[in-house]
Amino acid sequence: MKKTLNLLACLLLLLHVNGQQTMMFTQYTFNKAGLNPAASGTDLNQEMYYAFGIGRPYYGLSGSPKQTFVNFSYTIREPRSISFWQNIGLYIEDEESGLFSQNNVYAGYAMHRLLRKKILFSWGVYAGIRRMGRSLGGFDANDPAVSKTTDLLLYPDVRPGIRVASHKFFAGLSLKQISVTSLRDFKGRKIGSPSKLTPTIYAEYGQKIPLMANVLFMPSVALNLPVIGPPAIDATAMFYLYNRLGLGAGVRGTSMLNGILQIRFLNNLCAGFAYGYAVGPMRYAQSQTFEVIIGITPVGMDVKVTAQHSITRCPDLQF
Fold first, then answer.
1. 154-199: per-residue pLDDT in tens?
2. pTM value?
3. Fewer CB atoms near the end CB (10 Å): N or C, the chain?
């Protein structure tokens, strides 16, 4: 029985990896700039932004994904200008999952234009290199499809994105794996038999709804849509209290229930924790998922929901 469950777990994990070749985080609004380059530097009040995080889906299961990211960016604007600014940055992500591992490094650029003082339109792009490698744990090293493979450098990997936001909502769209589409480098080297990287569309939408003084409700949804393959759908409902505490819950398709806690422990620094429990077939093998992100104040925590006559920062440009 135990061997049967382990086999089932391996098959489900391989389906998870094949269906989701790009990384997703439960706290996607915290890691907004990692998933969409147009979201980098949207808050004009943040000259520098820094965040890092780790994710451990199905923690404890052999071959389960191990995800990490680091994100840094710097905002450039003319003195006293509040209608146009730019942002440059660096985004690094790493993942080990099943048979493969990847280390990706991107340089980022984004520009932001305030329209009619209410709507912020953003455009951005990441351009970088992907290093794809192999992980032989649990596989036969004598298999010619595996033993003759090597690490690959795939470039240029380009990820464009656009985003529209206001004080009431945000919506974004980005494209991934559109310039690098196969696990074969310029020298003809490959990993295993010929494999493809599926072009993927990432989309998100959320609303910021004041409920009462110092309480903000922010429901959102994120879609990871490969051109070929099953989609990954995340939906989250967050409550932010006094710009200091965030509590929420979410789902990933029909396979995972998530709980989220975010705490603002310095003037503009936050820590986010997410715990997921599998409700699909994976619960028979390993049911728990963990995620930790630390960075500058995320979306939601920076929105001041206060009484009508309270004093707020001016200009109040958090998007």
1. 999 999 999 999 989 999 999 999 998 888 888 777 776 667 889 9
2. 0.85
3. N
Cα 29 versus chain centre, distance = 8
Q: CA angle 49-262-299, nearest 5°? A: 45
Would you tell me how many other CB atoms lie within 10 Å of the CB of residue 117?
10
Residue 149 CA to residue 133 CA, distance in Å, equals 8
Domain boundaries, the chain: 2-296
| Tokens coding 178 | 């559109």
With a cut of 70, list the residues of the chain below it in pLDDT.
1-21, 135-150, 192-194, 282-284, 306-318
Please tell me the distance from the alpha carbon of residue 315 to that of residue 42, in angstroms, as a whole number. 14
CATH 3.40.50.1820: does it fit domain 2-296?
Answer: no
Both structure tokens of 207: 């609303």
pLDDT of residue 38: 98
